[in-house]
Amino acid sequence: MTHALRGSAAVVGIGLTEFGELPGKNHLEVMAEASHYALADAGLTLQDVDGLFVSSMGRVFHPLHAAEYLGVQPSVIDGTNIGGSSFVNCVQSAAMAIQTGVCKVALIAYGSTNRSNRKNKIRDGGNPNAGALHASEYGPRNPIVSYALAAARHMHEYGTTREHLAQVAVSTRQWAQKNPRAEMRDDLSLEDVMGARMICDPLTLFDCCLVSDAGAALVMVAADRAKDFPQKPVYMLGIGSSTTHDQIAQMPDLTITPAAQSGPRAFAMAGLKPSDVDVAEFYDAFTINTILFLEDLGFVKKGEGGAFVGDGNIGPGGTLPVNTNGGGLSCVHPGMYGMFVNIEAVEQLRGVCGERQIEGAKVALANGNGGVLSSQVTAIYGTEETL
């Protein structure tokens, strides 16, 4: 029996601001700019929005601030924060709201001035160790300490190497070089990654995501209205979420993320399997993420992700294009990257990605990651012919 949410909603508008450093702007202005672009892309205005889905790094009452700043009074509003996966989770919430008739036009939006705030020493968000009741007394530099721990365990257990991790960064950079928006487009070699400054063993500088200012937004409507809008609609075929822990010390297995549950749930709703995916967009806060998600989402067997990446499979010309915009490692990472996996998935299925376009792409997967591998939300998108 087909799931009620499968193909019930579609993305009809997307918007991106410039990436990098946006001086003189605050997070609300950046969010509003992205929202304007997304609504214009859909041929709509703020007056059409009756569902608002936003999230923020540690700001209390952010949904209220966002609604007031945008000048909207939505019938449904949600600001659930489960880390960087929040904006893939928003897609699920918006689809449910649309399916049940609570709203007709859902705007999902995010804006951040994370880089400018750091430069100007402005506190932007909560304590990164909040909730880590047992670990905080040791003063870990989170989140990198937690991801380095997972990387070290994967290397110990499965023979994953520093070269495998470095190849993730290199492959992602190769995609970024095909994306005019990407922040980092210089050549990057394995030697560059492995010889870079060690940040937290085994992760060097290029194993770590960027710190950016940026905004992104998308607009969703019911599938039966999707063809009424200017752009080619992209349909949500399946979505699944899971969380297994908060602090890394409580992760049941350092080599298995909640994507091992969210992925199968999304595929089951979509009625598809990993081999049906034409392009995959992962939240790559660190290079180990990509290897873990390849395994947990079923693209390769557990322990084989490093070798798969090492053989060049995820880069241009590979068997599975991954993070075709350049990812959080080379394209953009404004504190919470989940919105951008959605946007790149939609652009690939629209067929508007220029040099990085995956020819004939019909099915795209977007996986959001939150906390320290704590929450995972997996969305599967498709073109009209996949309905």
Sum up the structure in keywords.
387 residues; alpha/beta; 9-stranded mixed beta sheet; two-stranded antiparallel ribbon; 12 helices; 11 strands; 18% strand
Secondary-structure-derived class: alpha/beta
Total strand count, please? 11
Give the number of helices: 12
State Rg.
19 Å
Indicate the overall shape.
globular
Question: What do you see in this structure?
Answer:
The chain is of the alpha/beta class and 387 residues long. The chain is built from twelve helices and eleven strands. It has a nine-stranded mixed β-sheet with strand order 3-2-4-7-1-8-11-10-9, with helices on both faces. Strands 5-6 form a two-stranded antiparallel sheet. α1 crosses α2 (62-70). The radius of gyration is 19 Å and the shape is globular. The two termini are 14 Å apart.
Secondary-structure map with pairings?
Blueprint: E1 9-16, H1 27-42, E2 51-54, H2 62-70, E3 76-78, H3 86-99, E4 106-113, H4 114-119, H5 144-158, H6 162-176, H7 190-195, E5 198-200, E6 203-204, E7 213-222, E8 234-243, H8 259-270, E9 279-282, H9 287-296, H10 305-310, H11 327-331, H12 338-350, E10 363-370, E11 375-382
Parallel strand pairs: 2-3, 2-4, 9-10
Antiparallel strand pairs: 1-7, 1-8, 4-7, 5-6, 8-11, 10-11
